[in-house]
Specification:
Residues 193-227 are annotated as: Disordered. The chain has helices at residues 2-29, 33-79, 81-85, 88-139, 146-237, 239-258, 263-283. It is mainly α and 284 residues long. The chain has a domain at 42-197. Helix 2 (33-79) runs antiparallel to helix 4, helix 4 (88-139) packs antiparallel against helix 5 (146-237) and helix 5 packs parallel to helix 6. The chain is rod-shaped.
Length: 284
């Protein structure tokens, strides 16, 4: 009995399925010929819309990845802006990477935008055909064919994909512009670093020149002292010395005439005076 019951139930299920399919086919077949054309067109367009939706989703993912990569570059560059600006090699590498990310993000944004537009065109055309069939079914109390329901679902999925693609397109554009701005900031930082370096060099050069000037002045003073010493020595050893002795002789003569002194006693003070002068010169 149990085996027989199972067989009966299986047969009943098969019959019910066949009846359901037959009714669905009958429902679609019962539509007027001009309405059936819209059903077929909606079915065909729905398949195209699904394909475009998948491409649109891939382009969306690519654009988002490019946008996030550009965003990370901007953050890291701003955090190390002064360090990068001080190293010409890092400056070149950073600029090269920045231009690469800008190009990548812009291309991804363009592709996402183009596929979003194509998907929008396809889903709208599909939706137009779906609307015709739905309107007819509503007015004539007719059930909506399965093809139309599937097409309607494809339209909704495509609309979501387009929304996400447009959002990703905007993100990619925004972060590409952020990269451009941070590269401008880097140029400004490099210019500031170069200006600061020139100022330091100028200050160092000024200190060096000042030291040289002081050294030159010291040398000139030393030369003047040496010249004065040599001149004074020559004068003392030359004419002035003779004059000194002559004067001493005259004085001694005068003293002799007075009867108060003799020549030998007068020469001793003169020699002492000469030694004192020479000693002062040696000290100076």
């Amino acid at each position: 009995m149990s085996m027989l019951s199972c067989r009966v139930l299986c047969l009943l299920a098969i019959v019910l399925c066949c009846v359901g399919v037959a009714r669905a086919d009958a429902s679609a077949a019962s539509l007027p010929q001009y309405v059936m054309k819209y059903v077929e067109q909606a079915k065909k367009l729905a398949e195209e819309t699904k394909e475009l939706k998948e491409k649109c989703e891939k382009a969306t993912e690519t654009a988002r990845e490019a946008a996030y990569e550009a965003q990370r570059f901007v953050v890291s560059t701003r955090n190390e802006l002064e360090t990068i600006a001080a190293d010409p090699k890092k400056v070149m590498e950073t600029k090269s990477k920045g231009y690469e990310l800008i190009d990548k993000a812009m291309k991804a944004a363009v592709e996402a935008g183009e596929l979003a537009n194509k998907t929008t065109d396809s889903e709208r055309e599909t939706d137009d055909n779906v609307s015709v069939v739905q309107t007819y079914a509503e007015e004539h109390k007719h059930s909506v064919p399965k093809e139309i329901k599937d097409a309607e679902e494809a339209v909704k999925d495509a609309q979501n994909a387009v929304y996400n693609a447009k959002d990703a397109e905007g993100m990619a554009h925004t972060h590409a512009n952020d990269v451009k701005n941070v590269l401008k900031e880097l140029d400004a930082a490099v210019a500031a670093a170069e200006k600061k370096e020139k100022q330091l060099e100028s200050q160092q050069q000024g200190h060096t020149e000042g030291n040289k000037t002081e050294e030159t002045q010291e040398k000139q003073k030393e030369k003047q002292k040496q010249h004065y010493r040599s001149t004074f020595t020559i004068n003392i050893h030359g004419d002035n010395l003779d004059a000194l002795f002559n004067g001493g002789a005259n004085n001694s003569g005068m003293a002799l005439n007075d009867g108060s002194s003799n020549p030998a006693s007068l020469r001793v003070p003169l020699l002492l005076l000469l030694l004192s002068v020479l000693g002062c010169m040696a000290v100076c």
